Structure formats: C-alpha cells, structure tokens
Amino acid sequence: MSRFSLSLVLLMVALWTSAPRAIATELSAGTARVDLTPPLSMKAPLGGYGARMNRPAEGVHDRIFAKAIVVSDGDRRFALVTCDLLGLAPPVKPEILKRLGSDWTAEQVLILPSHSHAAIEMNAINPNNTFGIPQIGIHDLELYDFTVDHFVDVIRRAADDLQPVTIGTASRHIPGWNRNRRADSTLIDDELTITRIDRLDGKPLAVLVNFSAHPTMMSEKEMLFSGGWPGALQRTMEAAIGEGVTVMYNNGAQGDQTTIGRPSGGDSNWERAAQYGLELGLLTVGEWKAIETRRDVAFDFHLQHIDLPETSWHPDFMSTGGAEYGLTEEILTELLPRMQPAQTTSGSVRLGDLLIIGIPGEMSAELGLNLKAKAKEMTGIAHPVIGGLANEWISYILTAEAYRTGRYEASVSFYGETLGETITAGAIRGMKTYTE
Fold first, then answer.
1. Of 28, 133, 195, 359, which residue is most buried, by most CB within 10 angstroms?
2. Number of domains in the chain
3. Which residues pair with 74 in a beta bridge?
4. Domain-located, residue 339
5. Is residue 2 part of a domain?
6. 3-state secondary structure string, 131-192?
7. In a domain, 54, yes or no
C-alpha cells in the first residue's frame, strides 16, 4: 500500500470513529391533542403572579391544550409533549408515568410547557405543596388528577395512530422579536427553529416551533384562561397550513428573554398577545413552506440525571420574590427541602437535524447560547435548541455572575450561584450520547 493510500485509510478511520452517532432510519409518528382547560366549576387558579392570590379563573379567553407526538423507529418510541402551562411541579411527570404503566419510561417522555402566565397555577398541581399560601398557590387534588389524566390520555392517543413520516428542520435569526429584560445584559437568542413532519403523501402531520420569549403580556389583572401569544401562534399556523396539522410550540432559554410588542399591537394586553402570536405565526409559516423533508433521519433520545446543589435562597429574595409570594425565612427553611428536588434530569431527543436539549427550569440566554454552541460542536447536529422548563420547574438557572448581581431572576433561583454550571455540565454529559 502506498503512503498516500495508507494516509487515506487512516483519515477515513479517524473520521468514522469521531463522527457522532447518526444512524438514519425510517420513522413513524402519531399526534394527538387534549383540552387542558379545567371546567370553571372546578375553580382552578391561574398561575404566574403571586398577586392573583390563588383566585380562580373567571372565564376562558382561549382554551389551553396539551399536544403530543409519538415517534417510533419500530423498536423504540418517544413521546414529545407540549402544553399551554406555566410549568410542571416535580411530582407531575412521575405520576403521569405511573398512570401510563410499564410501557413507558422516564427516558421516553419529554414534556415542554410554553410558560403561559394565564394557565393553571403550577403549585396547585403539586402534592408536595402543603403550605396553604395563596401567593404560591394551594394544592387542589381534583385539579391535579384532571391534569395528570389528560396528559396520560394525550400520550396514549398519539401512540395509537402511527404512520410513516418525513422530517426536516430549519433555523433563522429574527431580530426585533425579543429582548433581554435584565438591565445588565444585552444578550439575545433570537433564533427561530422549525421542524416539519409530513406524511408520506406530503400532507403535514406536525410542526415543532422553538423560540425564546416569556409569555407575560397578560398581567395579574387578566383572569381568563389563555395560551398567551404561543397559543395565538399555534392557532394561526394551524389555520394557515390546514390539513389537520398539529403545531407544537416550545420555549427556549427564556429566563431573561421577553417579547417586543409589535407596532400594531392594539390597546389591551389580549390584543397585543394575539397580534404578536399572529404575526410571528405567519412569519413561521413562511419559513415552514421552504423546509425540505427526508424519509431517513437519525433518531435517538436520552435522559441525564443531575445531582443538584443544596437549596438556598438569594440575599435579595425577601425584597423581591419573598414580597410577591408571601414567604418568610422560617417558611422557606421548611418549604425548599419539601418542594425543591435534590436531583433533576436533562431529557433530550434527536429527530434528524433537530436536537432538543431539555432544561428543567428557566435558563438565561447566555447559558442557553453557550449550550447550543457546545452541542453543535460536540455532535455536529445542525439545529440544537433548548427545550425550556422540561419535565419540571426547579427555578431560574443563571450564570454565577448574574446570580450575584441579583434582581428578580436571581431571587427565584433556589440552588445558589453554581446552579447554572451544574445544569450545563449535566446537559453536556447527556449530549455525549449523540457522539458515541
């Protein structure tokens, strides 16, 4: 063998051994949706603001949903669930899995709330919440069972109707649609990522949309159920695309990211949210139309366990979060060990050129941007995104510097200044799955 031939062989071996695991396969998928809007007779409280004092919703502006897509390669299957909720308390997903039965494991299910501030109060569906404090929500067993059973139902129904699909993903930066709400940072993640999932006849089955911005256009004074601007985005896209498509939105590293109101946003918070969702939805449909899909795509998923630092509260908490949520140091001493977990997870899934990295809380844009860049470098996957609030809400997740600086986000971060580093390191360990 010539020196040139030997060098070529060695190069090919090196490339093969260093390449990420990306076995292309033909996938099938099924979708379903359930209406998560509680009956008004249930008197379910709206979450997102302590000032609401656990008051029940007064009506329905637009209905809130859970949507699921179950993807299978014939041997393994995975359920991605999105929902118009503020977030999920740590006990919720384990109970969903318990009621699903042994056919599903924690690794196979990733739940991504949109972070709507006009939906079910997160701590009203938290069995560990035994404190009876209106500002943080009061646990309601009936509402808890209602919500968990609807999640079980949507996963089962999506799994019952699998059909062959093609998949493609594209990303685009869209400046002017979001901003950093912290005065000490100008970092913005304005990347919009869209995944198109079609039936073999070309008809659309599902669209996954990822964009980072707080759905906080409604204040504590608006007391109607709503999916907020993400709900409007999904409805707009489903109407524009047609064919019974299921559009599923998931938020990114939105811990310090919020919306920028559109010029024609209207006079009320409801109008502004609807206008923002409408315009962003139409923009996204335009991008969706140009996406090319493939039959053979890589498919994999992983659940990385992460040990958390000891719980603590920020020195500023009593003047910010403590004031809003009616908490004292005495209450926190008992509350944090009971309601905040000692271990969490980073669930992830790969669908072709898309990699969703689940983060169990509200991560800052700086950490999210760094993690996405690291994911692209490690795995070679073209479109990594942060799936914010994945499976459970543990707190805001900030850099050590941002935590020390303080302000609202730091005051609602309950694991000290090393939490951002801990979660990031855990997510990176999980990404090694896609390089082996």
1. 359
2. 1
3. none
4. yes
5. no
6. CCCHHHCCCCHHHHHHHHHHHHHHHHHHHCCCEEEEEEEEEEECCCCEEECCCCCCCCCCEE
7. yes
Q: Which two tokens stand for residue 244?
A: 């019974």
- The reply to whether 50 falls in a domain is yes
Q: What is the chain's pLDDT, residue by residue, as a tens digit (436 residues)?
A: 444 444 443 444 344 334 445 578 999 999 999 999 999 999 999 999 999 999 999 999 999 999 999 999 999 999 999 999 999 999 999 999 999 999 999 999 999 999 999 999 999 999 999 999 999 999 999 999 999 999 999 999 999 989 999 999 999 999 999 999 998 889 999 999 999 999 999 999 999 999 999 999 999 999 999 999 999 999 999 999 999 999 999 999 999 999 996 656 667 999 999 999 999 999 999 999 999 999 999 999 999 999 999 999 999 888 777 777 888 889 999 999 999 999 999 999 999 999 999 999 999 999 999 999 999 999 999 999 999 999 999 999 999 999 999 988 998 999 999 999 999 999 999 999 999 6
**Tokens of residue 58, six digits:** 């007064």
Q: Which two tokens stand for residue 231?
A: 């709900």
| Domain containing residue 92 | 29-434
